[in-house]
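G., the chain you wanted modeled:
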Amino acid sequence: MWSKRLRLVVLLVLGVMGVSTVFAIINKLPYEVGGTGDPNTVAADFITRGTAISPPLFILLVLLLCAGLTLRRGWVGTVGVVGIILLGILALVAGLQEPIVWRTLQAPVFGVFEIGILVLESLSLLLALAMIVFGVLTLIERNRTRGPASAGR
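Predicted structure as tokens:
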């Protein structure tokens, strides 16, 4: 039951990150972690460095792979769930430190641009938290369905 919800949350995360990436490319919002990217190369930089409001493509691909692994039983599925939890923690920590969010919160006037950033980042943070919570609940569920007979192995 929880694993289905976890996979749904992962799909929502991927959707929100897709929208965030498009928003960042249109508005020329380069990455700001490990330096500042060039506003003219946001689309290319997204592949390896991400944007100001979305992670790099390779992180999203790892998340998708982990979600696929959760379809498997046994340790392979458990590795997928643990991967999702770790990526959720990473997304939560990174999202809380995004410089663009703190600058936006200090903006004297809020327009569509500022509201877009805050809505996308708020969704990202809530979904990261949901990945962590549903991931932990999925691990508990997997452990319970394994039963006491296999606990001694």
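The chain has six helices and no strands.

Shout if anything looks off.
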